[in-house]
Amino acid sequence: MAVVQEAVATPYAGARAWLGTALALVLAVAAVGWYVHESQVLDTAALDIRVYRDAARALLDGGQVYAGRFDGLPFTYPPFALLVFVPLAVLPAGAAVALMFLASAAALVAVVRWCQDYATGGDAGPWWLTVSVAAVVSVVLEPLHMTFGLGQVNLLLMALVLGVDARATRWSGAGAGVATAIKVTPGLLVVAQLVRGDLRAFRRGVLAFLAATVLAALIAPAATRTYFTSLLWDSTRPGGLAYLQNQSLRGLAERHVPGHGAAVWLLAAALALALGAWVVRRHRADPFYALTAAAITGLLVSPISWSHHWVWVLPAVAVGVRLGRRSPVLWVALGLVVAMVAVVRWWVTADAPLYAQDIYVVGGLLWLAASAAQRPAAAEPAT
Residue 246: beta bridge partners? Predict the structure, then answer.
């Protein structure tokens, strides 16, 4: 009887695998087609890639990168990022866009896989499911949609942190260190290792950041000096603080209490940092959970967290799924996912409804609050 059951099950398993692979292929092609269409109708398509590419070309040409504007925008990243973007500068424009898109797509697939693995305790399931999920969320979730559309580095940095640090590899800590040298804001993830009590990971993060920054200083000393002595402290340089898509506590304060935004932000950020530190420390045995909490905290307290920075919703959902349906963490994370689908409609007008103006900020605070109340449990790192 067992032999007969196995013989029957095997063809069905093979059929499921083929159907799943076909589904993944269809969804992936549909997602690529969607972005090809957008690239032809939107003026902002690949805008950030153009900024990255032109800024790196200015460096290669010996120009003043931080004094210039590229497609009307300043370059706001640390000088090490310029070195990372050099490959985009030496490629033709179309090839540079394709390279960034493919790199982000690969990063997204890796992140989804690690999230599945973490959420299920090591049983991520078939790869066709991973690719299918990645294709769908890349289009329907606003942060991912914007990341791909603009050509942002968000997914690459998140993959660096999750792949190196959250999975407790031998280089744990270095991922956030390198990410910080590229975009500053992941710096809180380096500090989170200290809060967790992992001094080795903290040292690796600091050393990785210093090594990358020193390398940049050797190659571009003037740009490095300009950035770290003046531009780093200019919170208005990346854009308007009150802009709707600045989904941070500072953005919330500037929108609702103009004129007192800085004072309100400082108070709110201090409270959010305390809450985030509590969550990181409480769940210190689980690096995936703790670093996700640190990332959410960083998004909240940063002066500017554009909506496309909130790609960290993916590991936030994975944490909730692992905890199970009885945990408020899951339901808050799923509510944030719903909001990220709906904001595409809510934010199309300048006069967005009040409940939608700070939806990511509120969701992030609720997720941290639910995590603070969640009983900690030791967790094996995702593999």
Answer: 306
Is 378 inside a domain boundary?
Answer: no
The whole-angstrom separation of Cα 299 and Cα 276 is 11
Q: Which domain holds residue 101?
A: 2-373
Domain total in the chain: 1
What kind and span of H or E run contains 367?
A: helix 359-373
Q: Is residue 228 part of a domain?
A: yes
Q: pLDDT of 85-122, one tens digit each?
A: 999 999 999 999 999 999 999 999 999 999 999 999 99
pLDDT at 346: 85
Nearest C-alpha neighbor of 34 from the set 344, 317, 359, 360: 344
Mean pLDDT (the chain) is: 92
Look at residue 161 and tell me if it is in a domain.
Answer: yes
pLDDT digits (tens, 9 = 90+) for 34-89: 999 988 888 889 999 999 999 999 999 998 899 989 999 999 999 999 999 999 99
Backbone angles phi, psi at 73, to 5 degrees: -120, 150
Measured CA to CA, the distance from residue 94 to residue 99 in angstroms comes to 9
Q: Which helix (H) or strand (E) holds 167?
A: none
Specify if 379 maps to a domain.
Answer: no
Distance CA 88, CA 55 (A): 10
Separation between Cα atoms, residue 270 and residue 373, nearest integer Å: 19
Q: Quick check: 259 pLDDT over 80?
A: yes
Looking at 175-179, 213-217, 359-363, 374-378, which range is the least confident one?
374-378
What CA–CA distance (Å, rounded) separates 12 from 15? 5
CA distances 129 to 83, 107, 140, 143, Å, are 35, 16, 17, 21
Residues 282-299 pLDDT 10s: 999 999 999 999 999 999
The candidate with the shortest Cα–Cα distance to 157, out of 166, 169, 145, is 166
Nearest to 49 by CA among 7, 85, 83, 14: 85
- Distance separating alpha carbons of residues 130 and 34, to the nearest angstrom: 19
Question: Which three-class secondary structure state does DSSP give residue 70?
Answer: strand
At position 337, the amino acid (one-letter code) is: V
246 — phi, psi (to 5°)? -85, 90
